[in-house]
Design a protein that fits this description.
Blueprint: H1 30-40, H2 50-56, H3 61-68, H4 73-84, H5 91-100, H6 104-129, E1 165-170, H7 176-187, E2 195-196, H8 198-201, H9 208-219, E3 220-227, H10 229-232, H11 235-247, E4 256-260, E5 278-279, H12 289-298
Parallel strand pairs: 1-2, 1-3, 3-4, 4-5
Helix pairs in contact: 1-6, 5-6, 9-11
């Protein structure tokens, strides 16, 4: 039986539809996020705003209160959602939530831009997947890791999204047990804060000094300093403390919070004496310690 030759003028078959529920939030670029903020940041009685979105994404009352003082709560909300639910924070899920909140105006206006961002994201992923596993040139002099590959365990490895924290914890190794208690009291309770703990959150193989500066300056809103006799002997803690103080001279922005959790043989560091501290060693105020510390980290 003769076969009919294919018609070269026939239009190609349409590409399969993109599954937005498989596209992570890091695919959405700055333009789309900024326009989302323009729609959702203003508090409105007639339409669902960012607070309704926050509730739908599982934020608690205290988390929403913390976001209220930020200039762009929608942007921070989406960043933290991606960090908190890296597998479930997808573009499709976000659109489903906006649809359930009745924000069809947002969906209509952003549909084209969202689709374009998602297509670009998948195109980049496919191009990277098609790259050869080995290159013929010897390039051992070129750094194997770059900032675009991420510095924390939840960073997007392609540089499209970075992990943001409420506080960087400055501590020495001998105080790690108290840091673990801090994680339990501030992250796993109703406060639900997000702490940056170097041994837990930072990927190995990077320069300690440059990564510390990046995290303190750009990724963390506050820094908690766990002060002890061992802290005074740590060059790394000394650098982190002085770097944080240089970003906020005179502690004007309440960026740095000293914590004393056990008695000390040496004098309290002079560079921190002018800053009010959280004292875990005082039995009269110990019951208020975690609440005071959490509230200070929630300040805008």
């Amino acid at each position: 039986m003769a076969t009919t030759p294919s018609d070269p003028s026939a239009s190609p078959s349409p590409a399969p539809a993109l599954d937005l529920h498989a596209v992570p939030m890091v695919a959405l670029n700055y333009g789309v996020r900024r326009r989302l903020g323009l729609y959702l940041n203003p508090r409105a009685a007639a339409a669902a705003d960012w607070t309704a979105l926050a509730e739908a994404l599982g934020c608690s009352f205290l988390e929403i209160r913390r976001l209220e003082g930020l200039p762009d709560p929608t942007a921070t909300l989406l960043d933290e959602w991606s960090g908190r639910c890296p597998g479930g924070a997808t573009v499709g899920k976000l659109l489903d939530v906006l649809r359930s909140l009745g924000r069809d105006d947002v969906l209509t206006d952003l549909a084209g831009s969202v689709e374009e961002d998602c297509k670009k994201y998948w195109q980049r992923k496919q191009e990277e997947a098609n790259q050869p596993l080995q290159v013929p040139a010897v390039d051992s002099s070129v750094p194997k890791t770059s900032e675009l590959m991420g510095i924390t365990i939840r960073d997007d490895p392609y540089g499209s999204g970075t992990e943001i924290f409420d506080a960087f914890i400055c501590y020495c190794q001998k105080d790690l047990q108290f840091v673990q208690e801090m994680i339990k009291e501030l992250e796993q309770t109703e406060f639900k804060l997000k702490l940056c703990v170097f041994d837990r959150d930072v990927l190995p193989g990077t320069c300690v000094w440059s990564i510390s500066g990046e995290l303190i300056e750009r990724r963390c809103r506050r820094m908690v300093v766990v002060v002890s006799d061992d802290y005074l002997e740590s060059d790394e803690c000394d650098f982190q403390t002085k770097f944080a103080l240089s970003l906020s001279p005179g502690a004007r922005h309440k960026r740095l919070i000293p914590v004393k959790y056990k008695s000390m043989k040496n004098e309290f560091p002079s560079i921190l004496r002018f800053i009010t501290i959280c004292d875990y060693t005082n039995p009269c105020t110990k019951k208020w310690f975690w609440k005071r510390l959490a509230k200070s980290l929630m300040l805008p």
